[in-house]
Amino acid sequence: MDPKNKENLSSLLQDVNELLGKNKIVEDLVDKQEMPKQKLIKNLVQKQNLSALGKLLNSLHPADVAFILESLPLNDRLIVWDLVRADRDGEILIEVSDSVRQTLIADMDNTELLAAAEQLDTDEIADIAADLPENVLQDLLESLDANNRKRLESALSYPEDQVGALMDFDIVTIRDDISLEVALRYLRKIKKLPELTDKLFVVSRSQKILGVLPLKRIVVNEPDLIVKEVMSKDAVLFKADDEAAEAAKAFERYDLVTAPVVNDEDQLVGRITVDAVMDYIREESDSNQLSMVGLREDEDIFSSIWKSVQNRWAWLAINLITALIASRVIGAFEGSIEKIVALAALMPIVAGVGGNSGNQTTTMIVRAIALGQVSLNHLRKLLFKEIGVAVLNGLLWGSVLGVIAFYLYGNTGLSIVMTTAMTLNLILAAIMGVMIPLAMSKFGRDPAVGSSVLITAMTDSGGFFIFLGLATLVLV
């Protein structure tokens, strides 16, 4: 985000908080005064103070209003939401995060929800359909004409990680046997093109895709040329059941703005745009960041305590189990630690560095899996490379740590144990960092989910065992 834009959003949020704060102060003052018609006076004061806030909100872009809603505690969020004009509800619901959208929808009755959804295009309705009550969604389907109902049902039939879930139906088609002049007159007749239209889709009478005609070719070529003479016949096409991740890579590779979506008979059924792809990439990025630390879903920062506990408990439970295992590993060497107290001070260093190294490897492997660059076929090469990196890093930083241990405790054997344990734990971290995400991918699980927790567990327990085991053999 541009720093200036970020500063503007922060300033807007500050203005909103100030207006909400002033309203709260006046409300509290009125409540403390005993006067006739107190409720009426309070309502008048509320309207006066919130009027300025309403004007501010309704002058903003929907995405900016969404940012403000996401940045407010629930009570303030609902106050702001009530100030938004009803005819803007739909476009703002599209912009907010899933978790915040749920709180806004819970505050709306069925009539308001239906009115908000009817403002949206078919593909936008599909984006929020999962959050709508079933009876509202059914009423919405019944209110659509047959064509849009069919489109919505089609969009809802695809998983969110497929192209069909991202496509929209705002397409402009032409035939290949007309002249560019006729095509241009047709565009003028339409008057308003769908957003992000950079090309027209050339189809046959049966709607089979024949090619695409970039708008710039209409402008730079002679108007009497026929469409099929200047159109591109090797356009990038997507099937509705293609993986969205693969489509995102193609958009990046070929610098696409829009691309046609076809069925198995190559008939045009919709299009996919770069903004839909960017939204998907952002959502996947957010999801992966959450998954790496074991969070199951996007969490409203101001959600209830119970909801946050539900979102976080699972991997914390796993982390507790692994911590108990690590503690039992330490407990098995209590005698060694009692004889050489320095071990208690040094063993967290070995485990901590191993955990960081393992997370570096895991992050790299998860990213490569997401980009389709690695699979189990590359396991041997990846292990060889990562073990080589671990050995070099282990010898280098293990030696540094060994020198420090010798300086602090004057024990040559302890220095050797530190260097060796560091190297072995980094090797373990490298092996686990490669194996865990590849194994999860092999069994159809998201390799990003909880990888960080599992790696830390392995390097903690393994690091303690390696270090204390070596110390027991060499020093005790």
Please describe what this structure looks like.
The chain is mainly alpha-helical. It has 3 domains: 158 residues, Alpha Horseshoe (MgtE N-terminal fold); 101 residues, CBS-domain; 170 residues, Orthogonal Bundle (Tetracycline Repressor, domain 2). The protein contains 22 helices and 6 strands. The strands form 2 sheets. A 3-stranded mixed sheet has the order 1-2-3. A 3-stranded mixed sheet has the order 4-5-6. The protein is globular.
SSE inventory with pairings:
Blueprint: H1 3-32, H2 38-57, H3 62-70, H4 74-83, H5 89-95, H6 98-106, H7 110-118, H8 122-128, H9 134-143, H10 146-156, H11 163-166, E1 173-174, H12 180-190, E2 199-203, E3 209-214, H13 215-220, H14 227-230, E4 238-239, H15 244-254, E5 258-262, E6 268-273, H16 274-292, H17 305-331, H18 334-339, H19 342-370, H20 379-409, H21 412-442, H22 451-474
Parallel strand pairs: 1-2, 4-5
Antiparallel strand pairs: 2-3, 5-6
Helix pairs in contact: 1-2, 3-5, 5-7, 7-9, 8-10, 15-16, 17-22, 19-20, 19-21, 19-22, 20-21, 21-22
Quick take:
This protein has helices at 3-32, 38-57, 62-70, 74-83, 89-95, 98-106, 110-118, 122-128, 134-143, 146-156, 163-166, 180-190, 215-220, 227-230, 244-254, 274-292, 305-331, 334-339, 342-370, 379-409, 412-442, 451-474; strands at residues 173-174, 199-203, 209-214, 238-239, 258-262, 268-273.
Total helices: the number is 22
Global shape? globular
Order of helices and strands: HHHHHHHHHHHEHEEHHEHEEHHHHHHH
Q: How many angstroms does the end-to-end distance come to?
A: 57 Å
The side-by-side strand order for the widest beta sheet comes to 1-2-3
Structural class: mainly alpha
Characterize the quaternary organization of these chains. single chain
Low-confidence stretches: none
CATH architecture of the largest domain: Orthogonal Bundle
| CATH fold-level name of the largest domain | Tetracycline Repressor, domain 2
Radius of gyration: 30 Å
The number of E-state strands comes to 6
For the biggest sheet, the summary is:
3 strands, mixed
CATH class annotation of the largest domain: Mainly Alpha
DSSP strand content:
5-15%
How many structural domains are formed by the residues? 3
| CATH evolutionary superfamily of the largest domain | SLC41 divalent cation transporters, integral membrane domain
**Overall pLDDT:** 84
Helix content: 55-70%
